[in-house]
Amino acid sequence: MTGIDLSVNICGVEWKNPIATASGTYSYFESSRYYKPDRLGCITTKGVSINPWNGNPGPRIAETYGGMLNSIGLENPGIDAYLSPSGELRMLKKAGATVMANIAGHTVREYCEAAEKIASSEADMIELNISCPNVECGGLVFGRDPKAAGDLTKEVKRHCPGKPLVVKLSPNVTDITTVALSVQEAGADAVSMINTLLGMRIDTMAGKPVLAKGSGGLSGPAIHPVAVYMVYECAKILDIPIIAMGGVSKADDALEFFYAGAKAVAVGTAAIVDPEAPVKILAELEKKIIDRREGK
Ligand SMILES: Cc1cc2nc3c(=O)[nH]c(=O)nc-3n(C[C@H](O)[C@H](O)[C@H](O)COP(=O)(O)O)c2cc1C
After folding, report:
1. DSSP 14-40
2. Which residue of 60, 114, 168, 184 could cross-link 71, Cys pair, CB 3.0 to 4.6 Å?
3. Distance, CA of 247 to CA of 196 (rounded, Å)
């Protein structure tokens, strides 16, 4: 520990530093073998829905140049398991972590019910996933249409009045700023961006897609410049904070996001390659800041 203060306040919640995990790439039960979750500013948990979801059939992961494709389809044990005494949220809170609970739904009602349950839980913040490209209904259906995104945000906000609501935006749109403005107007306390980009790989021996579902979401270093551009464009017009993600695998990638206007940064795919990536990136960031202060 360097002792420098990197704390940030994200819509009323104090993060001890600006580095978080990205939803779906951290699990308390696996990742806490590598580092204590309270070392990061925030742990964003995998999307949970009101009922358990099985996700998509395999294969649902494929490697790509500079990243990976996934079509997990938000497999999760359901919100009651997540909130149970042996569930992930309790474990994380016991370990002293700041937690952002990511929620998913097929319908407005499902999103609202999930938000209501999280609102009366120990979670510090709620992340509304309106951008998953891997589910047939819900997800992108809301995230692609500024009006639908705004309407859903307004409705969900009514069901979780006491908790900051972060809306997770999709890059799979013509103009992400219109969706960002719409959710801000509807009451979002912050936005997180970006979710994965729609993509596909074809197995040239079989002549068919590698992923059983066909398409998937592209993540990792390959999407970083796209994410930086989108954060930059949104930061120019938004009043609410931006939590940026997309291909962060070293401190410099995080710094690019800060210069683009983000208030905090999340690490996703890099942690699938190396589970310790978020804490290593944090340590590297601290060192860079100290070096700059000392004129090195
Ligand atoms: C395997 C996997 C699962 C994911 N699951 C979720 C999820 O449940 N909810 C969500 O909002 N985003 C999910 N994402 C998207 C990430 O949180 C993040 O927005 C995206 O991967 C870009 O960041 P990265 O390039 O650092 O991975 C998932 C990504 C991956 C790779």
Report:
1. EESSSEEEPTTS--HHHHTTTS-GGGS
2. 60
3. 10
Look at residue 296 in the predicted model and tell me its pLDDT.
Answer: 83
Domain span holding position 27: 8-293
Q: How confident is the model at residue 136 (pLDDT cuts 50, 70, 90)?
A: low
Per-residue confidence (pLDDT) for residue 292, from 0 to 100: 86
Strands 208-209, 264-267: pairing kind: unpaired
Q: Is residue 2 part of a domain?
A: no
How many domains is the chain partitioned into structurally?
1
CATH for 140: 3.20.20.70
Catalytic-labelled residue, pool 112, 132, 160, 234 = 132
**3 in a structural domain:** no
Whether residue 269 has its Cβ less than 6 Å from ligand 1: yes
CB 51 within 8 A of CB 74: no
Going by pLDDT thresholds of 50, 70 and 90, the confidence category of residue 31 is very high
Closest ligand 1 atom number to CA of residue 44: 17
Instruction: Report if residue 169 sits inside a domain.
Output: yes
CA angle 75, 80, 86 (to 5 degrees): 95
**pLDDT, tens only, 76-113:** 999 999 999 999 999 999 999 999 999 999 999 999 99
Q: Mutation test of ligand 1: which of 140, 170, 196 has the most ligand atoms closer than 8 Å to its C-beta?
A: 196
> Is the residue at 1 inside a domain?
no
pLDDT digits (tens, 9 = 90+) for 246-269: 999 999 999 999 999 999 999 999
**SS3 label, residue 73:** coil
Q: Active site includes 132?
A: yes
